[in-house]
Amino acid sequence: MAITKMRFRQFTAFEELDFIAYPGINVLVGANGTGKTHLMKVAYAACDISKTKIDFAEKLVRVFMPSFQHLGRLVRRQQTSSHDEEGLQDPIECHVEVRRDDTLSIDAFFFNYEMSSGDAEVLYAKEWCDRPVESVYIPVKEMLANAPGFRSLYAQREIHFEEIYADILDRAYLPPLRDPMDRDYRLLVDLRQIIGGEVTTRGEEFFLISEQGSLEFTLLAEGMRKLGLLWRLIRNGAMSKGSILFWDEPETNLNPKLFGPLVEILLELQRMGVQIFIATHDYVILKELDLRMNSQDQIAFHSLYRHPENDQIHLHTTEAYLAIHPNAIAQAFDSLYDREIERSMRGEDQ
């Protein structure tokens, strides 16, 4: 039940964008403000409602948290706009479409002046929810160390947190499967060696259990917490064959020496049938993927960029690392290398 295509018209940063997803790993790169996270949040919202069955427009509001929860604020802002005699802006229609397996689609249509998610027109076939898909969104901010009390507070109070934070805790709190699949078990063994133990809960608190005893997550390095979350999601079946993983900047607060093992885990998840979307700003993550992937892996690099002539966001997709264009990450590292050579040459001249 993989995502195959997404379409955006006048949505947040996108004036018009068509996105073709690969069934394996989809790597999103680009400068800040080019819509990488927005693209993943829309896809996640569409997947999540296939299980929760809440309204798609309402889920978009919950994961994006526009001011006053006004749906119309998700419509792309125009640089110039005309107004009527009363100063009201001309209506702008937004369209968001997500397709799964090219047979199922969900569409949302709404205008910039609409406040309530109930004003949107959402179209999808009954099969969208009859054929649910497991999905996980791992945000940049680590949540397991801050888990105790969060879900009950979120459920009872209006706190300004995007719903992806409550959702990831819901996945992490799931009890473990009785008998993990053989391939899942191998992944769990690899992750256990990296993090030095297994992750469990006591009440609402997460602990790493190792040969030295138990260590609460508040005392664990943040990078290890992220890998511990990954172990937990595989152990409880939240990530298994047919599921979809969205991970925003997996490199954040992770020691670079762990990038290689992390990429190997992601590649193995893809080989066992998990569709993956990651947004990254890190050269090493990209290069590790390039060096570790094999000819059977289904990996696409999607470069989002602003066109110099009209400042609109465009997309270039390739299966080859060297063909990523534009590649802001590589350009930054090339600049560092050039400056290092220049300084070295000046030193020799002296």
Shape: globular
Radius of gyration: 22 Å
CATH topology grouping of the domain at 3-79 and 90-134 and 240-343: Rossmann fold
Terminal residue distance: 63 Å
* Overall pLDDT level: 92
Q: Using the coordinates above, name the CATH class of the domain at 3-79 and 90-134 and 240-343.
A: Alpha Beta
Q: Work out the oligomeric state of the chains in this entry.
A: single chain
* H/E series: EEEHHEEEHEHHHEEEHEHEHEEH
The strands making up the biggest β-sheet line up spatially as 7-11-12-3-13-14
- Count of helical stretches: 10
Helix content: 25-40%
- Major beta sheet, specifics? 6 strands, mixed
Tally of strands? 14
SS-derived structural category: alpha/beta
The percent range for strand residues is: 15-25%
Q: Pick out the low-confidence regions.
A: none
The second-level CATH architecture of the domain at 3-79 and 90-134 and 240-343 is 3-Layer(aba) Sandwich
Question: Could you please describe the fold and organization of this structure?
Answer:
The chain has 350 residues and is α/β, with parallel strands linked by helices. Helix content is 34%, strand content 24%. The strands form three sheets. Strands 7-11-12-3-13-14 form a six-stranded mixed sheet. It has a five-stranded antiparallel sheet with strand order 2-1-4-5-6, with helices on one face. A three-stranded antiparallel sheet has the order 8-9-10, covered by helices on one side. A hairpin with a 6-residue loop joins strand 13 and strand 14. Helix 6 runs antiparallel to helix 7.
